[in-house]
TrEMBL record:
Organism of provenance: Amanita thiersii Skay4041
Domain (D-isomer specific 2-hydroxyacid dehydrogenase catalytic): residue spans on this chain: 54-373
Recorded GO MF terms: (S)-2-hydroxyglutarate dehydrogenase activity; NAD binding; phosphoglycerate dehydrogenase activity
Record's protein name: Phosphoglycerate dehydrogenase
Biological processes annotated in GO: L-serine biosynthetic process
Ranges for domain D-isomer specific 2-hydroxyacid dehydrogenase NAD-binding: 159-341
Length: 461
């Protein structure tokens, strides 16, 4: 295998005289580079060396396809989702599957997935997968919850400016043939106060963008967070509502955040404030928002997420879905968008990178770091010079006595490092052991996979 770091080491050696003790900063880096190869991670392979087959559905980004093929996996790429029946017929041939939100991985699909090792959700949510069923079958599920934070933050800035300049009203009027040039009620955002509710991945990105526009930023969060730039955390939601010209929500949907903005919260806002929700539909009581808009308490709103959203493009957004839909659609000071906050080419590419790397790390190194349904276990890499080390990846039922059985089996060898964790019914142990012969390997595998708590045992060499 070619190793880029080794190539660099070679070129350094050719162009410089040997340096035994680093004397300048340049010498120091040369010295460090010379020794880097000692810590180069070894590429691991499954012991049975079966060709890994990956099924990608729903037009997952071609970058992800490339990334997985570059690892030597066989990838079948389909543009559409598969029905449960089709999945049940096909999934038995694959070790990994990549889906987006339309493909449902039900318990029946998991049952038919006899070779499946890992599921990659190339999206934010994972409720299209029966997560407990996958975990019980020893299959970790990975997603990409934060790849689109920047995209959402940028849309919010567009909405802040759009609301402040009545962009949608003017655009609508001109489309209907009405020229209405006016400055009354249109404002610059510079010097105005943006109140961010939830200062996580999106809220904090937005904070930086808003300050670059010359806005003053306040935020409210249930945890104390180090503010970025000149932003300031306020002591309560009520303070934030009272002081902000624009209020934007970036909290998760939880029982505590359901309808967190309702009649009394709108009443606490400055008269004529603007309101933006790109978080989750159920966080806002929409009839209360409609009242606040009608009375002028809120001057305008942007809403990207709704309690109930159509399942596919082209489906109606009407009163059958949400009882107030037609009222909201008829209000010109409301910007309505179909949950597109995170929908950009960049976010899709980042999702593709992140999930394909998580899938690859699990298949090649056993790491479950970032899995949503599984204990998160990872080990420092086995390095290139540790040629006889092997990695044991053992998924088992979370019950007493398992570690004793496994450690009895490992006890004749030097266990270089080991880590295990559990989540619900499932536990996962990773161990790197030294100097195991090929014959011992088969014996060891039979012994560990023969324990009654065994769900899945893989050896990587
Ligand atoms: N519109 C879209 O397309 C789109 C895209 C991505 C994410 N989202 C949604 O945006 C929201 C935020 O995403 P994120 O990635 O920034 O999440 P995050 O987990 O990084 O941040 C959420 C923040 O909210 C805080 N929080 C939780 N409960 C709170 C409460 N009751 N009061 C105040 N703060 C509270 C948390 O402490 C955390 O700091 C989520 O609901 C997510 O689903 C929407």
């Amino acid at each position: 295998m070619t190793n880029p770091i080794n190539i660099k080491v070679g070129s350094f050696a050719a162009s410089s005289s040997p340096v035994s003790t680093p004397s300048s900063i340049h010498d120091h880096f040369r010295h460090v580079r010379r020794h880097e190869h000692e810590h180069v991670p070894r590429v691991l392979h499954p012991i049975d060396n079966e060709d890994i087959r990956v099924l990608l559905l729903e037009n997952i980004s071609l970058d992800a396809v490339q990334c997985l093929r570059a690892k030597g996996f066989h990838v079948d790429h389909h543009t559409r989702a598969m029905s449960e029946d089709d999945l049940i017929q096909n999934i038995g041939n694959y070790h990994a599957i990549g889906i987006r939100s339309k493909t449902k991985i039900t318990a029946n699909v998991v049952k038919a997935a006899t070779k499946l090792l890992v599921i990659g959700c190339f999206c934010i949510g994972t409720n299209q997968v029966d997560l407990p069923a996958a975990a019980r079958a020893g299959i970790p599920v990975f997603n990409s919850p934060f790849s689109n934070s920047r995209s959402v933050a940028e849309l919010v800035m567009a909405e802040v400016v759009g609301l402040s300049r009545q962009l949608f009203e003017r655009s609508y009027e001109l489309r209907t043939g009405i020229w209405n040039k006016q400055s009354k009620g249109c404002w610059e955002v510079r010097g105005k106060t943006l109140g961010i509710v939830g200062y996580g991945h999106i809220g904090s990105q937005l904070s930086v963008l808003a300050e670059a526009f010359g806005m003053r930023v306040l935020f409210h969060d249930i945890v104390n967070i180090m503010p970025l730039g000149q932003a300031r955390q306020v002591d309560s939601l009520a303070t934030l509502l009272a002081e902000s010209d624009f209020i934007t929500l970036h909290v998760p949907e939880l029982p505590e955040t359901t309808n967190m903005i309702s009649y009394s919260e709108f009443a606490k806002m400055k008269k004529g404030a603007y309101f933006i929700n790109n978080a989750r539909g159920k966080v806002v009581d929409i009839p209360a928002l409609i009242d606040a808009l009608k009375s002028g308490q809120v001057a305008g709103a942007a809403v990207d997420v709704f309690p109930f959203e159509p399942a596919f493009n082209g489906a109606p957004f009407d009163d059958q879905l949400n009882a107030w839909a037609s009222i909201l659609r008829g209000m010109y000071n409301v910007m309505l968008t179909p949950h597109i906050g995170g929908s950009t080419e960049e976010a899709q590419r980042m999702i593709g990178d992140e999930v394909s790397q998580a899938v690859t790390r699990y298949l090649g190194y056993g790491s479950t770091f970032g899995a949503v349904n599984f204990p998160e276990v990872d080990l420092r890499a086995i390095t290139a010079e540790q040629g006889t080390h092997i990695r044991v990846c053992h998924v088992h039922k979370n019950q007493p006595g398992v570690l004793k059985q496994v450690n009895d089996a490992l006890s004749p060898y030097n266990v270089e490092k080991q880590y295990s964790d559990s989540k619900g019914e499932v536990a996962y142990l990773m161990a790197d052991i030294a100097d195991v012969s090929r014959r011992d390997l088969n014996h060891l595998r039979d012994r560990i996979s023969g324990t009654d708590a065994n769900i899945l045992t893989r050896f990587l060499i």
